[in-house]
Amino acid sequence: MVEISTSILSVEKGKEAETFFALEKAKTDYFHIDVMDGKFVQKDTYKDMLEYSSYIRRISNLPMDIHLMVEDVETGIEVFSAVEPNIITFHLEACKDKEEVMKHIQHIKEKGSRVGIAIKPETKIEEVYEYLPYVHMCLIMTVEPGKGGQTLITDMLAKISELKTYIEKKNLEIDIEVDGGINLKTAPRVKKAGANILVAGTAILIATNYKEIIDELREEE
User: Fold this and answer.
1) How far apart are CA 199 and CA 188, in angstroms?
2) Average pLDDT, the chain
3) What is the C-alpha to C-alpha distance for residues 36 and 146, in angstroms, rounded to an integer?
4) Looking at residue 146, what is its pLDDT?
5) In whole angstroms, what separates CA 103 from the centre of its chain?
6) Residue 33: is its pLDDT beyond 80?
7) Where are the alpha helices (DSSP H) in the chain?
8) Count of alpha carbons within 13 Å of 23, Cβ hemisphere only?
9) What 3-state DSSP class applies to 96?
10) Cα-atom radius of gyration of the chain, to the nearest Å?
11) Dihedral of CA 128/131/133/137: which sign?
């Protein structure tokens, strides 16, 4: 089943509360929290995302999907575990070696969340294979991380397919999440390639009817 994780990165200032309520009513599967530190990526959303996620936790029981685009993964895990997210995803590129990757995976599990591992567009999919037996999800970035509203890099479709084939061959139970440039035009291709969780922000938040677009994005072919 395809699930939709709504990125709240471009929520209009001053309209946060009504937007979060509307997204819950529209039955998004997850709130996607894009945590950026201004170092790993240019933008810095740390403070806002902590504020938003704390607020969401007070008003909603919907699962939160925390995407750490940060250099200091350890602190990110500590800080955002406080909002009891369903899943915390960190970037392979933020780790210097295998030992560090495994340490973060363990840390997230100890904090009671599921584990996701993310890769940027230029990282080869094979680099993530050895960690797949230990995680719940692999997030493929289909744009350069750091800002919303970008266009999906179509070369990434082959990467999604490759990962899907590998997962099936190894008989692993892992979600494939795709983030970047997801809209009604690109969603069918991404789902066909093998993704089962789609992160969409701009496409949902500019719509007049959240439920309608979430349902359409979710629709199986």
Assistant:
1) 13
2) 96
3) 7
4) 77
5) 20
6) yes
7) 16-25, 46-59, 73-81, 98-110, 156-169, 187-193, 202-205, 210-218
8) 31
9) coil
10) 16
11) negative
Mean pLDDT to the nearest integer, 52-62: 95
CB 203 within 8 A of CB 182: yes
Residue 16 has a pLDDT of 94
Which residues, other chains included, contact 98 with Cβ-Cβ below 8 Å and sequence gap of 6+?
130
Q: Chain centroid to CA 10: how far?
A: 15
- Tokens of residue 75, six digits: 């602190």
Share of the chain above pLDDT 90, in %: 94
Domains of the chain, earliest start first: 3-218 (3.20.20.70)
Token pair belonging to 199: 């992160």
Q: Specify the 3-state DSSP secondary structure of 128.
A: helix
221, two tokens: 């072919």
Residue 221: predicted pLDDT: 64
Residues paired with residue 139 on neighbouring β-strands, in sequence order:
118, 177
Query: Do residues 89 and 119 make contact, with C-beta atoms less than 8 angstroms apart?
Result: no
Cα–Cα distance for residue pair 131/157, rounded to 1 Å: 21
Name which residue leads in pLDDT, 86 or 150: 86
Rounded to whole angstroms, the Cα distance separating 74 from 194 reads 30
Residues carrying an active site annotation = 34, 179
Query: Is 181 a residue whose pLDDT tops 70?
Result: yes
Model's pTM, two decimal places?
0.96
Contacts for 187 with CB less than 8 Å, ≥ 6 apart: 198, 200, 216, 217
| Count of residues making up the chain | 221
Asked if the model's pLDDT at residue 22 lies above 90, the reply is yes
